[in-house]
Design a protein that fits this description.
This protein has helices at about 1-35, 55-65, 95-105, 130-140, 165-175; strands spanning about 35-40, 45-50, 75, 85-90, 110-120, 120-125, 150-160, 220-225, 240-245, 250, 255-265, 270-275, 280-285, 290, 295-300, 305, 315-325, 325-330. With about 325 residues, the protein is of the alpha+beta class. The strands form four sheets. Strands 8, 9, 11, 12, 13, 15, 17 and 18 form an eight-stranded antiparallel beta sheet that branches. A hairpin with a 2-residue loop joins strand 5 and strand 6 (about 120-125). The structure holds zinc ion.
């Protein structure tokens, strides 16, 4: 009985040992022939295998964040990220991480971030960062560039990268010299003498610029043509506001200042310009009479001229302009 048990036990041990050896050999053989691998799918399509999922995914993440060549890339949009399924693969099957990565790149759309500097909403040039764009605008302000009020910065997210320029290049390309306001000494001679300098270039921004002073109505009457209107008698849009009233009506200075032009100026007829400081000027055109000459200090409300129809005019009216650094702004932003 005891012997029988012994035989049984011996057999049992033998069996267990054999079983262990067999298992070990099988596991060894599997480990020798196969390796744990990730089968990679993009959009449910099997595209290859990788042994190092972490490294491949890291490379893909870095591509999404930085793109290929990292200048001004905001991000990369990829349609579908890969999915990984663990499997055992024969050791001789090649993995193809590079091919998988290239498949991701093929469907990637790179978005670039950069900044446009606009003048009258038109994109003029592009710089790399917001700081640079701000720098450009500040430098133009310091140089008193006459187009500064029309400029703004727009952030761009685009799939194509425009040519980016340096701060210095941007400043020199955008700078426009402000028309010089010459302070003319008061003359004792005739009131109709053409004196001072004037800029009659035509620009009509719709924005309201802060002029820092209060303007009063130079005349009361009927508004016969508004700012910005185009008509057959003008080459471009209307740079002022027309107020129709009877000829000879006195025109009051909209604010105090120095008369910088008083005389005949082509289609503007008899024209008077008052400079109020900080680049702000008011223009009074088509006058029948001019009561003050260039260089005169005038106070707000002072009679400076009379309504007429001189120059390019079809009837008595005051053509009033508000200009800041030579740029005409809508007078109705400030009065009427
Ligand atoms: Zn007009």
């Amino acid at each position: 009985m005891f012997k029988k048990i012994m035989i049984h036990t011996k057999r049992g041990i033998k069996f267990i040992v054999l079983f262990m050896i067999a298992s070990f050999l099988i596991v060894g053989a599997v480990a020798f022939l196969y390796k744990p691998t990730y089968s990679v799918y993009i959009n449910n399509e099997q595209v290859g295998y990788t042994e190092n999922r972490t490294e491949l995914q890291h490379k893909i993440n870095s591509y999404i964040e930085n793109g290929e060549d990292s200048s001004n890339v905001a991000f990369v949009q990829v349609g579908n990220l890969p999915e990984y399924k663990l499997c055992l693969l024969k050791r001789n099957v090649v993995t193809n991480d590079d091919e998988i990565f290239n498949k991701i790149k093929e469907q990637g759309v790179t978005y670039y971030r950069y900044y446009a500097i606009t003048e009258n909403q038109e994109e003029k040039l592009y710089v790399s960062s917001f700081e640079e764009a701000e720098n450009v605008v500040n430098q133009l302000k310091e140089k008193n560039s006459s187009n500064i009020e029309k400029m703004s910065i727009v952030e761009k997210y685009e799939t194509d990268l425009k040519e980016l320029v340096s701060t210095e290049e941007a400043v020199s390309k955008l700078y426009v010299e402000a028309p010089k306001v010459i302070q003319v000494a008061q003359k004792s001679t005739g009131r109709y003498e053409s004196t001072g300098t004037v800029n009659t270039s035509l620009t009509t921004p719709t924005a309201k610029a802060n002029i820092g002073i209060n303007l009063i109505r130079p005349v009361s009457g009927v508004i016969s043509s508004r700012f910005g209107v185009r008509s057959s008698i003008r080459k471009s849009s209307h740079t002022g506001l027309d107020i129709a009233t009877s000829a000879g009506t006195p025109i009051a200075a909209a604010a105090s200042g120095t008369v910088t032009f008083s005389g005949y100026k082509g289609s503007f007829g008899n024209m008077l310009v008052i400079s109020h400081g900080n680049g702000v000027q008011t223009y009074y055109c088509h006058c029948s009479k001019l009561y003050v000459s260039a260089g005169t200090q005038v106070s707000q409300g002072q009679k400076i001229a009379a309504v007429g129809s001189t120059g390019n005019s079809t009837g008595p009216h005051l053509h009033l302009e508000v200009r800041i650094n030579g740029v005409a702004y809508n007078p109705q932003n400030y009065l009427y």
